[in-house]
Amino acid sequence: MSTTITRPGGPESAERAARELEEATAREIVLWAAETFGDRLCMTSSMADALMVDIVSKAVPGIDVIFLDTGYHFPETIGTRDAVASIYDINLVNVEPVRTVAEQDLALGPRLHNRDPGICCHLRKVEPLREALEPYSAWLTGLRRQDAATRRDTPVVQWDRRRRMTKVNPIARWTQEEVDAYMSEHGVLVNPLQYDGYPSIGCEPCTRRVAPGEDPRSGRWAGTGKTECGIHV
Hints:
The protein is an alpha/beta fold. The protein has a single domain (11-206), classed as 3-Layer(aba) Sandwich (Rossmann fold), CATH 3.40.50. It has 8 helices and 6 strands, in the order ααβαβαβαααβββα. It has helices spanning 11-21, 26-37, 51-59, 75-87, 101-108, 112-115, 117-132, 176-186, and strands at 41-44, 63-68, 90-95, 138-140, 157-160, 165-168. A 6-stranded mixed β-sheet has the order 3-2-1-4-6-5.
């Protein structure tokens, strides 16, 4: 028999928190989330860097950090994941899709990411994350308004209607200059691909290098018209 999880919060609570915390520091927002949701709070990380892990683990030691292991990641990303898990005070939760890449190729044909990247992202990211978030009432992300036009209205706290849980974005207001300053001051671990022309890192088949002056996310799903994997839409 399945058990329905009662989750604290709701749309009104999230909207109120967004207003009240708009000018709060990232640490204050994280501490608010920890006090509000307790052990039903987690965070996600793509392992492009450990900025959010550094901020959150200092405020909430031992927090669950969900990493979506799609089977298509660069070796550098997997190496960053392993280094983050060993260096920071977190509990890494490695989440894999129902099907391996080989099983997906057998069922749906090879290179689905080329033929229909939307379905591939849904099967290997969106659905696995949905299941991984089931035990929690809120999740912390590293979304920033400066990241992309699709994210410019990101509140520091919002109600995730699809998953019916609270989504907390502590660094939503941060500029790239603030990100760089924090990472330099605190010696934050960085995926080495960041130094090789990959400012936004996703799955290897769907990520290319970005030329100087290009939009940092232009290397994701280049030429497809796709701008988001579906997790944050």
